[in-house]
Automatic annotation (TrEMBL):
Family per record: Belongs to the UPF0162 family.
Organism: Chitinophaga parva
Domain (Protein SirB1 N-terminal): residue spans on this chain: 103-260
Pfam families per UniProt: Transglut_core2
InterPro entries linked: SirB1_N
Name by which UniProt lists this protein: Protein SirB1 N-terminal domain-containing protein
Top-level taxon in the UniProt lineage: Bacteria
Length: 291
């Protein structure tokens, strides 16, 4: 944007040693929104003082973050907030210049290849075998257990680029593809696991979800597409000494999934230079957490 006299004056005050003055200046600059970021980036390149550069970097992050908060609020206004879009918004926190179109193009390419192999005569298990073949063999997606030291696992753009994610991000990609292909697959809350389930019906989340209205046919581990039966899950719960609960088998809304993703992301940042990031990610999760 064009640099006005007021903006120029504000930029000149970014090196003011008085923290109160700086806070006032930063507040005024942030009100310009995302359009001010190119100006701040240009200013950063002309500054020699590293402490001022750091202030500018934090200010750019603040503007991005405030914009991202509004993007999530807009996302919530959708009748059914889109899962893939939510994951891309979450990735925008760390990668504000991420190209969303590149991700959607790649996902759409996988979807088209799966669609060509599906037909109305396939059983649910056969449908999932087609998905597994396309996702894990054709596209080459790999899966790893969750590690907060490998933070790239939680950002959908990095997962698409590296073709390697964890149960959460692989599960989001898998469920997003199922949604595009009209397959009733949803995440469920099995303790200590991120697992998908193939339901016998589509879930209308605009109404309270009643366990009597649906049945789970089988489960899918999104790390590599392993199929599990109800007996497998029951055996697992006994092994970890957890009593069976209807809540474990309730389908999760897209809001719940993205809130969980953001809270998991927050656990990845423990560097002293990123000490503010866990709180910001938790705040984003709070924005979209359902009552």
């Amino acid at each position: 944007m064009n640099e006005t006299k007021e903006l120029s004056a504000l930029f000149h005050l970014l090196d003011d040693p008085d923290q109160e003055v700086y806070n006032t200046v930063a507040n005024k600059i942030s009100l310009y929104g995302k359009q001010i970021i190119p100006n701040l980036e240009n200013l950063w390149e002309t500054i020699i003082d590293e402490s001022v550069q750091e202030r500018i970097e934090l200010l750019i992050h603040r503007v991005h973050y405030e914009d991202l908060q509004q993007c999530f609020r807009d996302w919530l206004l959708q009748d059914t907030p889109d899962l893939l879009e939510g994951a891309m918004l979450a990735a925008n926190y760390q990668y504000p210049d991420m190209e969303a179109r590149r991700i959607t193009t790649e996902i759409d390419r996988i979807k088209r290849n799966i669609w060509l192999e599906l037909n109305n005569y396939l059983t649910p298990l056969e449908q999932i075998n087609v998905l597994n073949s396309m996702i894990y063999n054709y596209f080459g997606l790999k899966g790893e257990e969750v590690s907060y030291q490998r933070k790239y696992q939680f950002f959908i753009n990095q997962v698409i680029d590296a073709k390697r994610g964890n149960p959460v991000t692989n599960g989001i990609i898998y469920q997003a593809l199922c949604s595009m292909l009209d397959l009733p697959v949803y995440a469920v809350r099995i303790p200590r696991q991120y697992i998908l389930a193939y339901f016998d019906t589509f879930i209308d989340f605009s109404y309270p979800v009643n366990p009597e209205d649906y049945k789970i046919m089988f489960y899918i581990d999104p790390i590599q597409g392993q199929i599990y039966t109800q007996q497998d899950v029951d055996t697992y719960l006994k092994r970890i000494n957890v009593n069976k609960d209807d809540a474990f088998f309730r389908p999760q809304t897209n809001r719940q999934i993205i809130s969980f993703l953001l809270r998991e992301m927050a656990k990845c940042f423990n560097d002293t230079k990123e000490v503010y990031k866990p709180d910001e990610l938790q705040n984003l999760a709070d924005i979209i957490t359902e009552d």
